[in-house]
Specification:
This protein has 287 residues and is an alpha+beta fold. 43% of the residues lie in helices and 21% in strands. It has helices at 7-15, 30-34, 101-110, 159-172, 176-184, 192-212, 216-226, 236-266, 272-283; strands at residues 19-23, 46-53, 55-64, 68-76, 91-99, 121-130, 138-145. The strands form two sheets. A five-stranded antiparallel β-sheet has the order 1-5-2-6-7. The protein has a two-stranded antiparallel sheet with strand order 3-4.
Length: 287
């Protein structure tokens, strides 16, 4: 089913009006947000800490376990999706970002929101409360994983991804107890080589998805990988099996992706988001 954009979004885009966007994952990082645009740098008017009551940070947007099991999504507190760790007050904290209509669309395209039935996120309207201005909530757009890619549990986010969230939360100045919550959240620990393998595979899979207008291969690959995945870090055998199976499944796509990356690197044409991702993995402590 094709997604339906909120009236708040369609009217603002038609009139060229600014929009508030609530970033709860990697977009809490100013540097990450600025460099993720496919059509030039993303610019924003303001960026401030805020929170949304009755929602939580979830990682239940289906990814490629165990290297990148799930990505950030806004999930209602009362949904059936099971969290690995909950934040007591029952709210989600993040970045409230004011964008022009043009830059808002750049952010959405970088998140795969393209109006197709295959897009991974739905735009939802929420009441965001800026820090220090709790009596003046604003209508903002946040992203929730769509049903076809939404898991009914939270896998462990990757250590790479969680590091970006923690750094972004610190940079924003989010409440210390929320930063503590992020610091305590379980993460998936895998070797650097497998993180890169997953990244190069994702490049190819999402490229094919864009060309064919179909997520069939992505869905098939991800579904198979989750057959062997567990978010329980105490299950050592299951974790090892997941790594082995994942390495085999991702090998063809990762080889193609790596070849394309090296060609782009040779000509100095590596996209900024990919370059940032690779550099982030390289900077991690050796696993």
């Amino acid at each position: 089913m094709d997604p339906v954009r909120p009236k708040l979004v369609t009217q603002a885009l038609e009139k060229g009006q600014d929009l508030y966007y609530f970033g709860l994952g990697s977009n809490m990082s100013r540097k990450k947000l600025e460099t993720r645009g496919h059509n030039g740098k993303i610019e924003f008017k303001t960026m401030e800490p805020a929170y949304i009551p009755n929602y939580r940070l979830s990682f239940n947007m289906k990814g490629f376990p165990p290297a990148e099991p799930g990505m950030g999504s806004l999930e209602p507190i009362d949904s059936s999706a099971k969290a690995l760790l909950t934040y007591g007050p029952g709210e989600c904290h993040g970045a409230l970002i004011l964008l022009t209509a043009e830059n808002y669309e750049k952010v959405m395209k970088s998140e795969g929101v393209d109006g197709s039935a295959n897009q991974g996120y739905d735009e939802i309207v929420v009441d965001a409360f800026p820090y220090g201005k709790e009596d003046s909530p604003v209508k903002a757009i946040a992203l929730r994983a769509r049903e076809h890619v939404r898991l009914n549990f939270d896998p462990c986010p990757s250590a790479r991804y969680m590091t970006i969230l923690r750094e972004g939360a610190k940079e924003l100045g989010l409440k210390q107890d929320y930063q503590d919550f992020l610091a305590k959240h379980p993460v998936e620990i895998v070797p650097k080589w497998h993180q890169k393998q997953a990244m190069f595979n994702m490049m190819v899979m999402f490229g094919l998805s864009a060309l064919t207008k179909s997520r069939f291969l992505i869905s098939l690959q991800s579904r198979f990988l989750f057959l062997f995945y567990t978010n329980d870090n105490s299950q050592k055998f299951r974790k090892s099996l997941s790594l082995i199976v994942s390495s085999i499944v991702l090998l063809p796509g990762s080889m193609v992706g790596y070849s394309l990356y090296k060609i782009a690197e040779l000509f100095g044409k590596v996209p900024a988001p990919v370059k940032t991702w690779v550099e982030g993995i390289d900077k991690q402590k050796t696993l």
